[in-house]
Every structure is written in C-alpha cells, then in structure tokens.
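Subject: TMED3 protein structure
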Amino acid sequence: GMRGRSGMRGRSGMRAAVRAGVRALAVLLCALRAGGTELTFELPDSDKQCFHQELERGLKFTLDYQVITGGHYDVDCYVEDPNGRTIYKETKKQYDSFPHRTEVQGVYTFCFSNEFSTFSHKTVYFDFQVGNEPPILPDMSNRVTALTQMESACVTIHEALNTVIDSQTHYRLREAQDRSRAEDLNGRVSYWSVGETLILFVVSIGQVMLLKSFFTEKRPSSGGAGT
C-alpha cells in the first residue's frame, strides 16, 4: 500500500513538473514575441525618409541601422526630439547604434537621408527597440525566492535564443551586402567582357582591311597621247 501511494505521489510530482515546464515554455514564447520594430526599406538617390514614434518621458530606446546595398554603403541619419532639437546626427555612416533615454514626452523623429548621392540607390535596415525587455517569468523582479531548475533553464534558453536571433540578423545583413557586392562585380565583369569583345572585333576588322590593302594591286592610270 505504501509503495502504491509513493508511486502515485511520484507520478503526480512528474505531472506537476511537466505542467510547470509547459507553463514556463508558454511564458518563454510570449516573451519572445515582445520586441521593437525592424524594417528594411528602399532609399532612392537625392531622397530622404523619416519615421515618427510617440514616446513617454524617461523611456529608453535604441536605434540600430545599417546600409545593405548601394553606393559606398553609407547614409546620413539624425534623430530629433518633440521640441525639434537634434539629439543625434551622423553623416555618411555605414552602420551605427544610438541608445537614448527620453527627456520629454512626445513624437520623436528619426530620418535617413541619401540627398548627398545623385545616382546611388540605397537599401537601409534599421531596428528600433523601445523600453526594457519584460521579465521572462511573472514577478521575476519582485520575487525573493531562488529560481527553480526549470525556471533557470528557461531563462538560459531565452538568453541563448536572443543571442541566436541577433546573430542571424547580423549574418543575414552581411549575406545581403555580400550578395549585392557580388552582383555588382558580376555586372562590371560582364560589361568589361562585352567591351573587350567589341574592341577585339574592331581590331580584327582593322587588321583584315590593312592586310587586304597590302596585297591589293594598284592599277596604273592608263593614258596615251596620239601622235
């Protein structure tokens, strides 16, 4: 009888642990959905694109951006607060990161400018993160007890997945940039090959015409005076 009750307690404990693991995994998946805004957009030559976001006072945000394709892979970027004061400005940057904590409430504006370029079309990626990441577990910041083994494992998995996501984003951007450079190089090689073919064709025709002129007999002009 004691063995049966202990077996039932063991099975119920395992079921409770499984339910706790499922709840922790659900919380983990919900936490993974939280985040900022990522966008990749086209920036034509001599053009400017601006984005607007209303933020509360004392809120932290981070703007990361990178030029993927076009020209020398550079762009102008600036950020203005609701009062029109420029809090960040960089010219001809390939990539950068700007963290800031808001001092006033209102609409913040961040712009990307390609006005300095007259023919280079750019593709720009940016990631706009607002606020701190919410805790992965409920009441995690206020609890006084230590985390269980399952909760610690979930936190570790969450941090590892965030690292993987950041690495994947970085490698995708590098891949897109390298592909753009390879396509640009391929286009230049193709144009160079076409130019060499045309030059070879013209030189060949010139050589044939020159050799033909060497072997062409010039007939003397006939003319006689009758006496």
